[in-house]
Amino acid sequence: MTSVHKGLLNGATMIGMFSGSFIWGYISDSRGRRYALIFSMLIDGSFNLLSSVSQIYPVLIICRLMSGFGVSGATVLYSYLGEFVNTKYREKFLCWMEMFWTIGIIILPCLAWLVMPQTFRIEYGFFLFRSWNLFTIISALPSLILAFLLMKLPESPKFLLAKGKYNETIECLKFVHRWNNNTDVKFPVTSIVAPDYVQELNKGFLVGLYESTIGLFTSKFKYVAIITCIIQFCSTTSYYMLMLWFPELMNRFLWYETLYTGFPNMTTMCDIVSLYKVEPDDIDGKCNDDIDESVYMNIVIIGFACIPTSLIVPLFVNKLGIRFFLGVCFFGSGVSAACLYVITSSHSNLMLSAVFESLSSAGISLMYCIAVELFPTEYRGMAVSIGSTFGKIGALLGNVVVGVFIDEYCTVPIVVACSFLIISGLLVYTLPKTGITSTK
């Protein structure tokens, strides 16, 4: 594949995530959190499996598009988990989700390091299967396993209660009681007394999606919804803009340091970027699939750099609050983005990318947590997913900005990323306080 082909492949995934984020939020609020999670994970895993045996580029594009559509439903997990945990511990439990993201960042390159260098080649007619195909199969397994595990779990009790399904709510609470107490002792609650709920009429999918969206932005929570969407847009734009740029910067620094070895390295990052000329790929029918080991190592290092924030945030979030950590993450990552302008070596680039990844990814994760806290059950799934949708729009914009300006005007992506993160940090303090910190 040429660079254009690779760009389209990444773009297909982003477009799928953009469209899916919006739709899965409505499905989770209308049909259920568990329902949305099971089907989104099955779609992601199934199309990942299909892409692993794809032999035609358009098929691969379609598979990545549908995989992005499916995996975008993973944001519903925040609503699902948050509605099983009481208010006192909800912030802490949701913040622990970042640790699992960090573990994934570490495990993924380690698996790739084991699988991708393998040189086996299975051919049968036009069918070709190599190490990257096997790695794609392995990457599909978590989504499929999660989908089948969720089939054994109950629906969110708060969702069932909000829909007036009191008998099903009792059954869900019985399940939780049995597992929490590891006993078959009879659940003491036999009925639920609650206000009457409004019977929902059967609506078409598009009508329901439209009314659910309008309902959120005309409710008393419209201000909070608008602010969270702006923050998601700004922070995710900056995140994808720089995290997709760091490997390219590393490449160009290594090129410069190898070419000018022995000379004092006083050249700034923007000077090196302008010196490096990207020539069109030579298409000779062969696939150069050699990956330097430093690529795997650098991603592992970045993953381990995320561990401190993944541990500190959940341990202290009940004392300091989500807003405090959101401010630290966005302002800190904004400063690290600004420092790109003055770095002069590949080591500095690696250090900044580690700091930026740990703070910005934690900030984006915390935005999902705070959305669960700020919105009631009937709006929660849609609010979380619409915020994610604005984030994916930002991700696409970030790709465009880097592609257009990286060679000739490299200060533009730096200024945009830094400004957006500072704006996100400031907007955080306009949101209402959440959790037990707001009741002190």
From TrEMBL:
Q: Which GO terms describe its molecular function?
A: transmembrane transporter activity
What is the superkingdom listed in this entry's lineage? Eukaryota
Alphabetically ordered keywords of this record: Membrane, Transmembrane, Transmembrane helix, Transport
Q: Where are the transmembrane segments?
A: 7-27, 56-81, 93-115, 127-150, 223-246, 295-317, 324-344, 350-371, 383-406, 412-431
Q: What is this protein called?
A: Synaptic vesicle glycoprotein 2B
Where would I find the Major facilitator superfamily (MFS) profile domain in this sequence? 1-435
The record lists the lineage as:
Eukaryota, Metazoa, Ecdysozoa, Arthropoda, Hexapoda
Q: Which GO terms describe its cellular component?
A: membrane
Q: Which organism is it from?
A: Sipha flava
UniProt-annotated location(s):
Membrane
Short name of one Pfam family for this protein?
Sugar_tr
